[in-house]
Amino acid sequence: MTFARPPLLYDDPPYRLSGVVYGPLLNQRSALEGLGDAVNQPPYKAAPKGPVLYMKPRNTLAFDGQRTTIPDGVQAMRVGATLGLVMGRAACRVPTETALDHVAGLVLVADLTVSHDTFYRPSAPFVARDASCIIGPRIVPLAQIGDPNAVTLSIRVGDTQATASMAGMVRPAARLLADVTEFMTLSTGDLLLLGTCPDMPLLGRDQAFVIGAPGMGELHGGAQ
User: Fold this and answer.
1) Which of 100, 96, 82, 102 minimizes the C-alpha distance to 15?
2) Domains annotated on the chain, with CATH
3) Residue 35 to residue 26: CA distance in whole angstroms
4) How far apart are CA 169 and CA 27, in angstroms?
5) What is d(CA 218, CA 220) in angstroms, rounded to the nearest whole number?
6) In Å, how far from its chain's centre is CA 37?
7) What's the rounded Cα separation, in Å, for the pair 147 and 173?
8) Cα-based distances in Å from 173 to 27, 176, 218
9) Band of residue 7 on the pLDDT scale cut at 50, 70, 90
10) Which of 5, 86, 188, 213 is at a distance of 20 to 30 A from 14, taking alpha carbons?
């Protein structure tokens, strides 16, 4: 499956999306707290001490208005509404105080996943479905939005409405970026998601969703 690259999303200077997308597990405090004592069970026996990342590979990438296919045997996928930090220049071991200087802009992202009970490192069949990372409609310069942690997203699936605040992160945007670049380099155009709230709406077949945020427009998608 291939997807056209919208010129507006990819070609705006001073960056292009590279197609590399990382997301942090359990970065929403409510998601971590919702696990209760499960985080203390083997094999880890404690809450994570650093960022726990997963990847959305290229086959997952889709863009405003596109639809994903819900797998056979799955009734619905969860709409993980979040923001993506678009890297404007390479970042390696950047301090928290200047981490956001490396970010060119923000973009709305729908991280669609199959509901699952595993955590820390979920299996690829849950998070890497085709067209399960819907991005858009445009990259908004960070200077126009200000603090990413102050953004609240609105989500609508059919008649179901919800909100997702970026304020409840275990690692706010700057610290997340600093902690991730402590052990790996993020390159220009890479996308680092901030994390998703645990109680997001479910998207069934033939349903559509809309994710919006002030100053960022609306991201549309759906399922078949």
Assistant:
1) 102
2) 7-40+47-223 (3.90.850.10)
3) 9
4) 5
5) 6
6) 26
7) 9
8) 10, 5, 21
9) very low
10) 213
**Tens digits of per-residue pLDDT, 72-99?**
999 999 999 999 999 999 999 999 999 9
Beta strands in 16-173 (DSSP E): 21-24, 53-55, 61-63, 67-68, 76-87, 103-113, 133-141, 152-157, 160-165
Nearest CA-CA partner of 149 in 164, 136, 139, 137: 164
Model-level pTM greater than 0.85?
yes
The encoded tokens of residue 188 equal 């220009």
Q: If DSSP codes are grouped into helix, strand and coil, which group holds residue 55?
A: strand
Say how far residue 105 (Cα) sits from the centre of its chain.
Answer: 14
Percent of the chain scored above 90 by pLDDT?
Answer: 66
The structure tokens listed for 144 are 């126009």
What token pair was written down for 90? 């390479």
The one-letter amino acid code at 93 reads R
Among 184, 63, 89, 221, which residue's Cα sits nearest to residue 142? 89
CA–CA dist 36, 38 (Å, integer): 5
- CA-based angle 21:27:29, to the nearest 5? 160
